[in-house]
Amino acid sequence: MDVLINLFVGLHIIGIAALLGGFLTQMKAMGRGEARFVPGMLHGALTMLVTGVVLVGLNQADDQPVNNIKIGIKLAILVVILGLVYVKRDEEKVPAAAFGTVGALTTANIFIAVLWT
What we know:
It is a single chain. α1 runs antiparallel to α3 (about 40-60) and α1 packs antiparallel against α5 (about 95-115). The chain starts with a helix and ends with a helix. By secondary structure, the chain is mainly alpha-helical. The chain is about 80% helix and about 0% strand.
């Protein structure tokens, strides 16, 4: 079971990298007001959602403790990220506030995962 959990942790990190990497590559364009949500950002957020749900299920099946409050907060943040990216995905220019919010929420989600024990 540990190998399977670690596999999904790796996939979860790949999803985070796709979302955050897409944000970071667009930061210069955000300063010019020309940022847009690239498809990799949506795919990364969806990967995070699917692998996160699987990880919770695998950890519960393995009788490991799961902090449901932490998972609930991370899920709520991810739903907001997904909503923003999905709704604005076809726009040529995304407002800097919406784009910055996605970056800030992604970073917050990472720090919640790492620091909340």
